[in-house]
Model the fold of this input.
Amino acid sequence: MQVETLRWREGRLELIDQRRLPLEFEYVACTDAAQVARAIRDMVVRGAPAIGCSAAYGVALEARRHAGAARAQFDVALDQAFRVLAQSRPTAVNLFWALERMRQCHARTRGGPVQAAAEALLQLAQQIHSDDIEINRAIGRHGAPLIAEGARVMTHCNAGALATAGHGTALGVIRSARDAGKHISVIANETRPYLQGARLTAWEMVQESIPVTLVTDNMAGHLMQQGRVDVIVVGADRVAANGDTANKIGTYTLAVLAERHRIPFYVAAPLSTIDMAIADGSAIPIEERDPAEVTGFRGVRWAAEGVNVANPAFDVTPAALITGLITESGVVGQPDAGKIRALFER
Ligand code: MRU
Done:
């Protein structure tokens, strides 16, 4: 069984409401770009590739809403849609990658009728959506041989079907290894503060009967020290041109621990997550989220009123700590600027 994280139904974008998983499974519908932007900001949909696909549909929705308008009005509405979507979340570069593709499509249609522009934009959003599933399957094919029979695979956050259009990146590698007949098990880090590991990764694995053990983030080092982790595979929100990788907060800690314990540490990500405009990880924008995510959860507060809170949602793992970058074009061992440039020429 594979979940459909996002789907286009009767002129609307439907998203699984990931805030409610795993206790409730329901779709919410978006009919304009502002609603999609809000869904991204509020984490109804999250995970770099899923954010990119949703943003593309956000533009398409806005285009359809104004498909009967005059050209000037249509263009103003689309410019506003691009603006509001680009402001939804800062770190995952797939958002900006998808918006740029949509912007180029919009620019190509400027001389023609508005109706045709709206159709072309929807077609491109659907293409980005279906391509993402294929890309994740290719990532899985390249990554599966790196996972040994019987391996205990640690992962962080959720880089699964729920974070993409389907199959997943890090969990895609795990799924593909399982599909290749390997008897593997997963250690899912809880992923404080938003619990994507506990709520989403554990749920995905249970759905598919892939053995999964849930641990809190601070247990990871202990498990590595005890020899209970064979390999680590995580996703990425933005990879700089030299291979430095931003991913969910806590990933850097795991990479340092993995080096200490000589455990292979892989990043699985599509080429659309690589930002060649950023030379190294120091320039990657790191989202700072609401302090309420740290002081409590779902309305229950456990920290004292008045306490100062830091809530960076991502951290940067230096390329030197990464054993390999698994992409749809193949695996880059010990990524660096030259190897990453070459990846785009394969
Ligand atoms: O804040 P989130 O849940 O959007 O963060 C998600 C991650 O950090 C994922 O690991 C990353 O986006 C890769 S998803 C294939």
